[in-house]
Design brief:
- The structure is a single chain.
- The chain is α+β, with helices and mostly antiparallel strands.
- The protein is about 30% helix and about 20% strand.
- It has a five-stranded mixed sheet.
- Helix 2 (about 60-75) runs parallel beside helix 3 (about 90-110).
């Protein structure tokens, strides 16, 4: 009778070299939520809601805010960025994108965490609009007072 021989070889999965790795993160600010995808070894494309960053943010200030994590870490142009953002205004959306990009960069390279954290980009800005109180026109604005 033939004896059965069990093999003790470990089977390991090989990841193909051409497989694109994506780092995803979510950023939030005010009422805006940004879902960010970073792709390494890119050409530096920055797409927000299927538009180029220059088309989406007309003001340079918002583009500057969205790119701050790349400037601080010196990784400008090394990643392709695709962002889906909704809610709030342009200022809140730019802040949400910055938060999401910073979180995705930390996932991509853990050594960048100290620089990004020191700049304060990993902390979610918790300031939100104060609720309106009854008897007032807004949160704190009172109606005009008449003496006579």
């Amino acid at each position: 009778m033939a004896e059965e021989v069990k093999s003790t070889k470990k089977v390991t999965k090989k990841i193909p070299a051409n497989k694109n790795v994506e780092y995803t993160a979510t950023g939030r600010r005010k009422n805006s939520i940004a879902r960010v995808r970073l792709t390494p070894n890119g050409k530096g494309n920055f797409v927000i809601n299927k538009k180029n960053i220059e088309e989406y943010f007309n003001l340079g200030v918002y583009r500057l805010v969205a790119n701050q994590p790349f400037e601080i870490t010196g990784t400008m142009g090394k990643y392709d960025v695709v962002v889906n953002v909704n809610g709030g205004g342009l200022s809140g959306q730019a802040g949400a994108i910055r938060h999401g990009v910073a979180r995705a960069l930390v996932k991509a390279d853990e050594s960048l965490k100290s620089e990004i954290k020191k700049a304060g980009f990993l902390t979610r800005d918790a300031r939100i609009k104060e609720r309106k109180k009854y008897g007032l026109k807004k949160a704190r604005k009172a109606p005009q007072f008449r003496k006579r």
